[in-house]
Design goal:
The chain is an alpha/beta fold and 182 residues long. The protein has a single domain, classed as NAD(P)-binding Rossmann-like Domain (Rossmann fold), CATH 3.40.50. The protein has six helices and five strands, in the order αβαβαβαβαβα. It has a five-stranded parallel β-sheet, sandwiched between helices. Helix 5 links the parallel strand 4 and strand 5. Helix 4 packs parallel to helix 5 and helix 5 packs parallel to helix 6. The longest helix is centred in the C-terminal third of the chain and has 29 residues. The protein is globular. The protein starts with a helix and ends with a helix. 35% of the residues are buried. The model has no long low-confidence stretch (mean pLDDT 96). This is TROPINONE REDUCTASE. Keywords: NADP, Oxidoreductase. GO terms for molecular function: oxidoreductase activity. Belongs to the short-chain dehydrogenases/reductases (SDR) family. SDR65C subfamily. It comes from Salix koriyanagi.
């Protein structure tokens, strides 16, 4: 038995990690799969997604995924449909990781910049939680993780819209805990 299994296990658990092919999302997929969870992830980049899945298969991890542009409501709905099929209608862990950032002075942000950042960083995880709610309940042990940022707590230059989106995620996290936690 390896060191991981001696500490704890996620065997039998299922997880969806958005934006799991690089950065923090990649590390989360590796950890969850390393502890035995079956993981589903998504990326906008099909080539990168296929390369990561092959890499994870080589490590003996149970990871599947699909191409998804989380800024699209239709893609989010298809993603949850795929997760529903992959995990027989049950999801234990939803990790809202995918996000975007645009560095600009406040006066230089365009309405398109604002919409892109808020859609990716706030609306998408909000909607995914709504869509995943029945799956999380069906598992009997549902958990949601939001990846935020220090920018959601303190002021940083060139990040006003990103910071606002992450501050909103922090508040959404608290409210969902209040409404959905046992």
């Amino acid at each position: 038995m390896g060191c991981r299994e001696q500490r704890w296990s996620l065997k039998g658990m299922t997880a969806l990690v958005t934006g799991g092919t690089r950065g923090i999302g990649f590390a989360i997929v590796e950890e969850l799969a390393g502890f035995g969870a079956r993981v589903y992830t998504c990326s906008r980049n099909e080539k990168e997604l296929n390369e990561r899945i092959k890499e994870w298969e080589g490590k003996g991890f149970s990871v599947s995924g699909s191409v998804c542009d989380l800024s699209s409501q239709d893609d989010r709905e298809k993603l949850i449909g795929s997760v529903t099929s992959a995990f027989d209608g049950k999801l234990n862990i939803l990790v809202n990781n995918a996000a975007t950032v645009t560095l600009r002075k406040f006066v230089d942000y365009t309405p398109e910049d604002y919409s892109l950042i808020m859609n990716a960083n706030l609306h998408s995880p909000f909607h995914l939680c709504q869509l995943a709610h029945p799956l999380l309940k069906a598992s009997g042990n549902g958990n949601i993780v939001f990846i935020s940022s220090v920018a959601g707590l303190v002021a940083l230059p060139m990040l006003s819209v990103y910071s606002a989106s992450k501050g909103a995620i922090n508040q959404l996290t608290r409210n969902l805990a209040c409404e959905w936690a046992k």
